[in-house]
Amino acid sequence: RVEISGLNVQDSIYSGRAVAYDGTASVRTSAGTDVTDKVTLIYTYSGKMADGSSYPASDNAPANAGQYTLKVAVSVEDSNYTGSVEYPFAIRPASVVISVPDCIYVVGETQTVPDLYEFEITGLLNGDKLTKQPSFTFTDMSGKEISKGSIDLSREGSYYIVPAEADAGQLDMIIQKIQLKITEFAWGSGLL
Length: 192
Description:
This protein is mainly beta. It is 0% helix and 46% strand. The chain has no helices and 15 strands.
């Protein structure tokens, strides 16, 4: 039985690039004899991706968010030596921020609150995109969810619009709620 050392796999944040080991493998017998040049090592990655699917055993390093293990083992074809070592590592999801500009309505000028709003996404990498577009929910200022129909556009008030249900696969969603304000005067009208 041999001991394999000298390698490292760092936890990282999803970047779209494969996360592989660094270092150089060293193989020693229990007596301390270096047999690195006498064995063939097999490098196998496996694990579970952030979406819950399996990452089947492969010599290709993973790139997607998930929990993985690199197993380095002496080839089964080597009859003189046996041994293996495992290096667990994680690729954490990167953060994506969805934000919507504050909305200001003037009393009496708007009849209904829209279902959709323009939104901005920051943090998508390497051609990643949302796998599910956001819908929008509404809350009062205390954070209690309310229906869109309960927003009274005939009088002043403040509410929050919350982008919801968006998904970017292996990316953590950071949702920024924004304020929906109903006011008597339009900004810039000169009236205070």
